[in-house]
## 1
Amino acid sequence: MSDKKLIVLFAVFVLIWSSGFIVGRMIVGSVSPNIFLAIRFFGTAVLFFGIALLLKKQCPKFSEIPKHMVVGFLCNGIYLGGSYWAINHGMPAGIMALLGGLQPLITLVFGSVLFGERFKIDYIWGIIVGLFGVYLALPSSHQSPNQSYDFLVFLISVLSIVCITVGLLFQKYYIKSSELITSLVIQNLSGALMSVILATVLKESTFYVNFDFLFSLFWAVLVLSGVGVYLLMYLTKNHNAVKTTSLMLLCPPLAAIQANLLFDERLSLLQILGFAIALFGVALCQKVKA
């Protein structure tokens, strides 16, 4: 893959992935998180199923299906379900974003311990710089929040980040040779099943069909999952896992900029500085030789 193509894919992925924070905000009060996620994942599965039929993509072997389901449970159902649940139970979105910024570090450790990847200490400096930039870009995350949360909420937040990290590494090392589009059909159906289970266990019931719900669903299915998740899986399969997940450091600052444009939230000089530092941290990670 050429450097120019890689840069374009990276830029598109970060812009799309960062919009997930906006979608999470828009659905508040309209639909319970796991009900929304179940609909989103099912809609995405239908989307990729149609694309697979149109392009005549080959289905995975029956014996391989459980592996694809594991990735779907981890990356879709548990990651997003856990994150949304934590935010709904008092976890400030800023702190959730900071925890998400730990993903490249967790990828580095887990990739080395579980999958035998060479541990490159040079990545650490880029991750630390990037996390500091995220910290500055989200001032609300290091001020006294109005919301309170207990240890269980914090634990679920961390668990959700660990799950998507393990899921992406599982994808890279165990089902890398599988056709990605048909794999995403299975992964999204698995995510929908997990969301239905969580919605039932948590007794979620809020569901109002309004503009916010319809627009959020459209964006989540076609853009976030249809393009964003595809790019995430594609880059993880074909590129260094730590370098790919380091892009997550840019998502919270970009989300702050989007909130400024869409919801007229003020963007401080400190946030702009934080974005620049996060960008520098990602650049350091990308320069490390694989």
Note: Confidence is low (pLDDT under 50) at residues 141-145.
## 2
Amino acid sequence: MTSETDNRHRLATAPIVVGVDGTTTCENAIRWAADTAAHRGRRLHLVHGLGLTSMRSVLGSYDVMEPAVTESLRTRGERMLAAAVHTAREVAPEVTIATELTEEDPAAHLITLSESAHMVVLGARAGAGTLSHLGSTLLKVAAHGHGAVVVVHDTDPLPALGPVVVGVDGSGVGVSALAAAFEEAAERDAELRAVHAWSDLEEGAFAGADYLLIPIEDGETAERAVLAERLAGFQEKYPDVTVVREVHPNGPRRHLAAHSAVARLVVVGSRGRGGFHGLLLGSTSLWIMQHAGCPVMIVHPE
């Protein structure tokens, strides 16, 4: 019983963690996280990783240079964190803020912190392009982190009117995403739009697929029943959350992207199995993380 009580206390007091890299890309993420922390009465934990562990392995025999190099990096990191605190205070003057300057690799440290965080928030550049524009730290944390990782683009506005949108599938990953989406909708007093596409094919591939592989006859009726079953338990737990259901034969990316233009948050699941730079996030999750017009929450199955 004590352990259960301790766990509930830990969850209730878990901070919102933000990765700080000193660029304008993360400023919106800091603002979004500070606003969320203020509304939920949570602490804000701003973190900057120096990556000295890997740097020491690169310096090799040049140990004599290390003190000067590390001191310069520490000074720069401290300035980044001070600027981040200033940015957060502009949005949420009363929120409790802690800063952390660590020698660890930023991605590895954020992944460790995600085990006990309410959520981890990271910034990203907006717009389409190669995966590199998202940054290796973001991709690693989004793929390997625990719980919820929120990606806030540098053009995303702070939370305003608009629904929380969740992509629903039939997997355990989808159940975790649904749980997080209902909680977010309840916290934000927002409508929840549950979007279920029973095929992850996009228009061209869907049109060219063997019709025997696509549930056409009574397909929508059957999939609406699947969606209703997925939502039932959560609607009982969150009776005040208004839910709008959508079922589509295909194109989850297209429908989620369209909703993201007016949503305050899109929630998707992560397969969480690892892989190079997190490419096994799932194609839809990875794509919407790049292209959404609002913050995106990646939810891991644990």
Note: Residues 228 and 245 are 8 Å apart (CA to CA).
